[in-house]
Design goal:
Length: 316
């Protein structure tokens, strides 16, 4: 997998200096610029984010008794300064590479879409300041999308990449974190999520202001929901396969195991229609998961999985 210098990896690099185990070399180049930068052009999305727990937790969480107990385990007193906690709980931003990062909030735009310093000016460039969206040739658009992705952008339609990224925090599956430390935190009371992509992304987090009606936060169609659900299950299976053997905590296993079982059941339900599901079940690797997600594009698998989808009133 290509190394993405998202916020988390950047903060993890700082953590690396503080002696925390890291999987990637410290070549931090991309950096996050903060949600206010996005708010210039994406006001509707910004407003949704402000209504989510990601935004609200920043003010509340560090003062919670559980936070104080847990932060002591990593030898710190304030979770807003403890690199392990910051990896998942907070966003930092800077204006220029040489600046010192400042804490700007809870998980924010770039926690999910990637640190933007190298893609911001690429992702909305249709070919120059005077070129309009309608004038951009399809090949140029493809090139723009690819260039931004290579610079670390996680595009909204790249649901596998998005799900994998949610899991790195919610599944406690980040390869950048020391599994032994995570196990200790879990045993000491840190919550373990039974993260399911539809339930977690279609409630307070949902922002889908797509053309033609860019003022409407659209619900997904049943076909879209079925694909998002299966994408989430594919990512969950891979995340569980990677993290479950490492995080030696009975409490973690008690959530991870049924999560893996549910993912297998969902993939099993479609493997007759999508052979790639069988391959993924046989070998839960990222490559097989991506091949599966590619294979379901454009398909309506709602008949096969509708009984497994979370009810809308349980969306977070
Ligand atoms: C100067 C204006 C501007 C700023 C600042 C900006 N964007 Fe965008 N963004 C755009 C435009 C215009 C598009 C539509 C691009 C297209 O047509 O493909 C876009 C598209 C996107 C998309 C894909 C939307 C889709 O339809 O799939 C995402 C995700 C995104 N921006 C995230 C961000 C984030 C995160 C930030 C802050 C780090 C940001 N943008 C800052 C103008 C901006
Ligand atoms: C929790 C992760 C998360 C956060 C935080 C987040 N996004 Fe997104 N974003 C997503 C997902 C998932 C989608 C894909 C939605 C879909 O395909 O239906 C998306 C889609 C988008 C889109 C395309 C849809 C649209 O509304 O035009 C834009 C633009 C965008 N995000 C910008 C932002 C901006 C700006 C912020 C911060 C204010 C932000 N996002 C915060 C996960 C996130
Ligand atoms: C791998 C990512 C990750 C790391 C590292 C992490 N957390 Fe969390 N934490 C989460 C997620 C995700 C949740 C939300 C779980 C949920 O909603 O069930 C959470 C929830 C919490 C909660 C409960 C919040 C509430 O609203 O009641 C506390 C307290 C907390 N974390 C403290 C910490 C502290 C302190 C550290 C550092 C020692 C830390 N966390 C490290 C991901 C992480
Ligand atoms: C950078 C780490 C990070 C990423 C990436 C991330 N989250 Fe979160 N998320 C958290 C933390 C930490 C909390 C808990 C905050 C608290 O309790 O104070 C949280 C809380 C939430 C909650 C509220 C849960 C509840 O029980 O109220 C939802 C919903 C959520 N996240 C959805 C998502 C989705 C969907 C994605 C991916 C599209 C995602 N998150 C990506 C760190 C992250």
């Amino acid at each position: 997998m290509q190394i993405r210098w998202t916020y988390r990896t950047l903060i993890a690099a700082i953590a690396g200096i503080a002696g925390i185990t890291l999987a990637s070399p410290a070549v931090a180049q991309s950096f996050a610029q903060g949600p206010e930068v996005c708010n210039e052009c994406h006001k509707a999305e910004f407003e949704v984010w402000q209504g989510s727990k990601h935004f609200k937790s920043f003010r509340e969480i560090a003062a919670k008794p559980l936070a104080k107990e847990l932060v002591a385990i990593v030898g710190a007193t304030d979770m807003r300064r403890a690199p392990v906690c910051m990896t998942c709980h907070f966003s930092e931003a800077r204006k220029a590479a040489a600046d010192r990062p400042r804490l700007v909030g809870g998980p924010s735009c770039e926690s999910c879409h990637g640190a933007s310093s190298d893609w911001l000016s690429v992702h909305n460039n249709y070919g120059g300041p005077t070129v309009k969206k309608e004038q951009e040739a399809p090949a140029a658009k493809q090139a723009r999308i690819q260039k931004a992705a290579q610079a670390g952008m996680i595009w909204s339609f790249d649901h596998y990449e998005i799900a994998e990224n949610c899991n790195s925090c919610h599944g406690l599956a980040s390869a950048k974190l020391d599994a032994a430390v995570m196990g200790k935190l879990v045993d000491a009371g840190h919550p373990v999520d039974d993260f399911e992509l539809v339930r977690y992304s279609q409630g307070t987090v949902r922002h889908r202001f797509y053309p033609p009606n860019v003022t409407q936060n659209a619900q997904m169609t049943p076909a879209e929901l079925s694909r998002l659900f299966l994408t989430g299950q594919a990512a969950a299976l891979v995340a569980v396969a990677q993290s479950a053997p490492k995080i030696q905590s009975a409490k973690f296993q008690a959530v991870a195991k049924p999560r893996g079982d549910k993912a297998r059941a969902a993939l099993d339900a479609v493997k007759g229609q999508v052979p790639e599901a069988g391959a993924l079940l046989g070998q839960p690797t990222e490559a097989n998961a991506k091949a599966f997600v590619k294979a379901i594009q454009g398909k309506d698998l709602s008949a096969a999985v509708s009984s497994m989808l979370p009810a809308p009133n349980t969306y977070k």
